[in-house]
Amino acid sequence: MVATDDLRALREYVTAPSTGSQQQSESTVVLHVTHCNLKLQMMELRFDLHTTVRGLKEKLSTHCGTSPDAMELQLLDKGEAEPVTLQTEHRQLGFFSPYDGQTLHILDHDPHSLSAHGWLEDTSKVDKYVMSEEAYAKRENTYKSFKEQKRKEDPEWTAEKELCQRRGIPYVKPEARKAAGEDEFAGEAELLEVGQRCECAPASRRGTIRYIGKVEGLPGGHWVGVEYDEPLGKNDGSVKGKRFFKCSANYGGFVRPDKVEMGDFPAIDELDLDEL
């Protein structure tokens, strides 16, 4: 039968407030692990204080590629001038009194180690398989053979055109899209006039039309430069250093013509009590 004191101690442990997401066992410690051959600091690892130095090396070898026989472990303490070397392999980690957050440094004495000379971090050192043109040409059902067959059927075939056909949508050549984009919103722009009052969507922003036309630095098509009544804009009438009209900072903006309604839009007076 469990003694009363033991039951009380167990109850206090279970009901005690946690200091983190879960209570850490008193027999474990969390250490920052670094390696002499690796530039990046390894993840924080939790170790059992009863683990022997040899067991510690075997666990770490799976993380860094260093053989346990070529490994030397050191505990680094900011308050100590010299590191503590974990020498005797049958000793348990707890013998060296490590604490949470302390650094465990790995020295690799194997010149041919997997971690040496950046082999575990620099992918440029890894030989990559490159297939020759002759070997690729002998393969069947490749993209190259598919493209050649399509080009025989349609000299103007492109992957984009193929996707449009599969999706059932019309295909427009890039040059045609560019030409159409240059005249985009031209019809809507013709209905507007510089100097007239307007209201812009969204948010019903009111102001005065100051510019109509294309704007270098913005996507193709026509734009409307508006001087807002309030600081609701993003510029002072210029785009990337080129000025199209002049106004105070944050009072200017460029919107598409279909978002602008021209008309008798007086400035909104928030102090106008007649609207209450």
Automatic annotation (TrEMBL):
UniProtKB keywords: Chaperone, Cytoplasm
Keyword Chaperone: yes
Residue ranges occupied by any CAP-Gly domain in the UniProt entry: 221-256
Compartment(s) of residence: Cytoplasm
GO cellular component, one term: cytosol
Chaperone is among the record's keywords: yes
Gene3D superfamilies for the chain: CAP Gly-rich-like domain (2.30.30.190), Phosphatidylinositol 3-kinase Catalytic Subunit, Chain A, domain 1 (3.10.20.90)
Chain segments annotated as coiled-coil in the UniProt record: none
GO molecular function: alpha-tubulin binding; microtubule plus-end binding
GO biological process, one term: tubulin complex assembly
Secretion signal span: none
Membrane spanning residue stretches: none
Cross-referenced SUPFAM superfamilies: Cap-Gly domain (SSF74924), Ubiquitin-like (SSF54236)
Stated family: Belongs to the TBCB family.
Name of this protein: CAP-Gly domain-containing protein
Organism: Apatococcus lobatus
